[in-house]
Amino acid sequence: MTTEDAATIPTKTINIQRATASRINELDFNNIQFGKIFADHMLVVDYKDGAWQTPEILPYGDMMMSPATSAIHYGQSIFEGMKAYRNPEGEIQLFRPLENFKRLNLSAERMCMPEIPEALFMDGLKELLKLDAAWVPPTEGCALYIRPFMFATDDFIGVRPSDTYRFVIFTCPVGAYYGVPLKVAIEPNYARSVEGGAGFAKAAGNYGSALLPARKMQEKGYHQLIWTDAKEHKYIEESGTMNIMFVIDGKLVTPAVSNTILNGITRASVLQVAKDLGYTVEERKVAVDEIIEASQAGTLQEAFGTGTAATIAQIAIIHYNGTDYTLPAIENREISNKIATALDAIKTGQATDTHNWMVKIEA
Ligand SMILES: *Cc1c(COP(=O)(O)O)cnc(C)c1O
């Protein structure tokens, strides 16, 4: 079978090996810790001889691997993050999963990894969620976080693209995001991403190299850093692992996506909802100086990060060059508060899904 065949053949069979007993009683739905308790099953698919093999759904658990597994050494490893929600009827729905699927393949291409067929991703995901449906929290504000990822599995330490890969999806319930408004600092030295690099990809190494700069900012009392362009550190790119947006003089302003910025699905959705609500949206270069001057002039009305985990994470303070700039109170932030409410209503099935973003899981 050629690679092309593999990409076009829909996934018909998934071998399912059920967990002998569910662990769901270990979960306190009223007090969910992020990223610690995983649902009963995981989807596992191997790629070898130029083709994706039969997908399997297995009990969630450890995986055996060789110490020479190439992903560990050279970082051919990519991931996605998305959520499933429960609507008022109790049905499970995914928020824009095809966008995550497409982005995973963009990351795969950049990291010289094989393409994942849509049927493999979507059918595997739906089957997994059907099996672990009980793990989608019924509680308001909660969701099932979904982590698809792919890594190189050759046990070979020569530097070259691996011949074999593993694609996995596991899930974990997550509680409501009660994040405090963030204190962030503009990063003057380190860079997350460079022109021509892989910053637009959700590639594991991007996150590893961001940990030290983030910790240094935390030691100075900030939650997170604002990444600037690698060349001059003059333009704002992202906030930690979120995209970043500002409201200046009533307009929603955000850095335009490029090959140094990760194209967030929350970002795109926030911009769409802003347009739906009649706000002016500007996607362009955003200079650090513009933000500081707007803050000094009193025209910087809002600042926030966007991402799957928080949807909208408000920014309370921006630090730059020795000064903390305090932003207006969260309750006065008309635009981001309205968008957050509107998006949440779509995700939980309480508002009409005019853009067909939600994908239902048939019971
Ligand atoms: C995942 C991610 C985002 C947000 O993307 P969403 O699709 O909105 O979750 C933004 N920036 C970086 C660096 C990311 O890894």
Automatic annotation (TrEMBL):
It holds the Pfam family Aminotran_4. The modification N6-(pyridoxal phosphate)lysine is found at residue 202. Signal peptide: none annotated. Its EC number is 2.6.1.42. InterPro entries: Aminotrans_IV, Aminotransferase-like, B_amino_transII, BCAT-like_C, BCAT-like_N, BCAT_family. It catalyses: L-leucine + 2-oxoglutarate = 4-methyl-2-oxopentanoate + L-glutamate; L-valine + 2-oxoglutarate = 3-methyl-2-oxobutanoate + L-glutamate; L-isoleucine + 2-oxoglutarate = (S)-3-methyl-2-oxopentanoate + L-glutamate. Its cofactor is pyridoxal 5'-phosphate. CDD domains: BCAT_beta_family. Keywords: Amino-acid biosynthesis, Aminotransferase, Branched-chain amino acid biosynthesis, Pyridoxal phosphate, Transferase. One of its GO terms (molecular function) is branched-chain-amino-acid transaminase activity. One of its GO terms (biological process) is L-valine biosynthetic process. It comes from the Bacteria. Pathway: Amino-acid biosynthesis; L-isoleucine biosynthesis; L-isoleucine from 2-oxobutanoate: step 4/4; Amino-acid biosynthesis; L-valine biosynthesis; L-valine from pyruvate: step 4/4; Amino-acid biosynthesis; L-leucine biosynthesis; L-leucine from 3-methyl-2-oxobutanoate: step 4/4. PANTHER family: BRANCHED-CHAIN-AMINO-ACID AMINOTRANSFERASE, SUBGROUP IIII AMINOTRANSFERASE. Acts on leucine, isoleucine and valine. Belongs to the class-IV pyridoxal-phosphate-dependent aminotransferase family. This is branched-chain-amino-acid transaminase. It comes from Pontibacter arcticus.
